[in-house]
Amino acid sequence: MQRVSEFLYRKMSCDIDVSNFPIRAEQIRTRLRGYPLMIATQLIVALLLCALMWDKVSHGVLLGWLAGLYAAHLLEGWHWWRYRQATSTVAECRQWRTRFIVFVTLVGVAWGSAGTLMFVEGDLAYQAMLICVVLGLAAGATTINPVFPPALYIYVTLLILPLTVENILLADATHLTLAGMLSVYLVFVLNAGGDLAKTFELSLRRELENIRLVEQMTEEKLRAERAQLSAEQANQMKSKFFAAASHDLRQPMHALALFVEVLKGREHDEQTIRLIGQVENSVEALAGMFDALLDISKLDAGVVQPHCEDVRIQALLDRMYAEFSWLAHDKGLNFEVGNCPHAVYTDPLLLERVLRNLISNAVRYTDRGGVTVTCETVEEGVQLVVRDTGIGIAPEHFPHIFEEYYQVGNQQRDRSKGLGLGLAIVKRLEQLLGYRMKLDSTLGKGSCFTLLVPFGRRISRILLVDDHALFREGMRYVLQQLSVAVEVLEAGSFPDGVGMAERHPDLSLALLDLHMPGSEGAASIRLFSQRYPNVPVVVVSGEEGRNVMEKVMDAGASGFVCKNSSAAVMLGALNLVLAGGVFIPPQMLQRHAALAEQEAPPVDGRSTRTSEYGLTGRQMQVLAQLASGASNREIAEQMGIAEGTVKIHVAATYQALRVNSRMEAVRVAKQLGLIGGLDG
């Protein structure tokens, strides 16, 4: 008996203390959330049961029973409404445990009494209907009350037991069988409800355990993020210090280099000269490493901000050729730079730094073959490709080569190969400028770095001045097909065009008709070019003639296009001039070359006939002057011809050699043996 009482106590007590408070509190809250539906269901079932028994049971008994049940539920509902939020402490939950036991006892007694008050003797049909109602209520309680097990045990027992006793008291075979069935059902329901209660409590424990784990993980993550933030702040403070102090930190290095230069200028014995050379090499290596460290500190500190402008890729490639060709030739390597007439909108100094680092690495790690730098236009922008035939990079090194101090094939940390910061700087500049870089490499065969420089969002403003509205309309369609985004400004007369140029000082190009209202031909072109020297001018004209072309080019134009030219020729001319080049129609170049050749005197006693490469004597003279570094004006003065004529000869020379820049023309001419030999 004592064991039975202890068992019942454990089942009915549902202890609530600090250790199990989270579980008990959630059990109580779950039951409270189901209260409105539970009460409403029982009120409706009670009303329907009374209607069912109205003709078989005394009306006074039914109304009295219904009033008592409603009163118990209303009292229960009022407490629910008043204290439904009071579950935040152990004391509040214990109060709710008491309320549950009290209310479930009252409601259980009320429903259990129905098994006695509404038991219609002698009418098995009504008895069966009453049993069905009781069993349905018990089944419903099993699904609702497992969230608070004491309520289940009290309610189901008080609900089924009176009806079981009534069947036992009748003592016939049928009712004894029904009593046995009710007893078995009672045991089954209590057992099933107990299992559901255990399952629910276990799920709550696991849920709370998961919540605790998530909280722990969140806390660990926050701690890790705080530690990372602290480390990043410390690193950024270090970077800011180096960035701010870079000028002062470089001064001792500059002074040391000056001291070495002074020592070199004095007389020394052979051993001292060797020592000075070693010191000089060490100073140069130290200065290079120091510059790389300070540069990467500036990038990390965020003090480097891009200053974007229109950048001619060809001019940049020419500088790279002048800088690295001698170094490559000294190593016995071929070094080639392709043609690129395109322009991009970016920071020229930072783009140059990216290219310099990539080319420097390519030359450093290549001992045979060569290095090539090429350029091509894609939909997103301009692709610059640096390809070498060097040692190559194994795939497992790909994720690490852009990390600081990481060097492939330099395990001995040979400082002549740098610190391993070149590609780290390239990666930071790539992210800063919005470039995209791709690496392809095969170990032992070479590497290829592809850098995509986006065109950017800058809009090129083009001034279109022509007195024919129909021609302006046609040119608008042509201009929209340029390789850059354009905004077209239109004017119908020269004075209107000048006024529009005054209002828009950021013009990228002026497209001017030679003869229109308010214009004096070449004189107006000269006036416009002098007033706006940074705006390249392309002259469009219905006239075709050598004299006209020479006049407009001498007036400062960068291009001459016939009005009857095709859209493709127009586009090619405008794209070339926007990229910094000069355009003359090919057929006019040929006519000009033929006439100029007839008029040109012999050069140094040699014939001025057209060369095998399509260059006239005049053009050969111009090419030699270009190689000497003379400007167009200086060439014109030395040769006694107009500067516009020089421009035409330069354009013809570029076309014959299939190049787009002075550096490319000189390099190709040297390779062909037209002027001097290859240097270095």
Biggest sheet: strands, sense, closure?
Answer: 5 strands, mixed
Would you count the extended β strands for me?
12
Could you tell me the radius of gyration in angstroms?
A: 48 Å
What's the helical proportion of residues?
A: 55-70%
Would you give an account of this structure?
This protein has 680 residues and is of the alpha/beta class. It has a five-stranded mixed β-sheet. A five-stranded parallel β-sheet has the order 9-8-10-11-12, sandwiched between helices. A two-stranded antiparallel ribbon has the order 1-3. A hairpin with a 3-residue loop joins strand 4 and strand 5. Helix 7 runs antiparallel to helix 8 and helix 20 packs across helix 22. The radius of gyration is 48 Å and the shape is elongated.
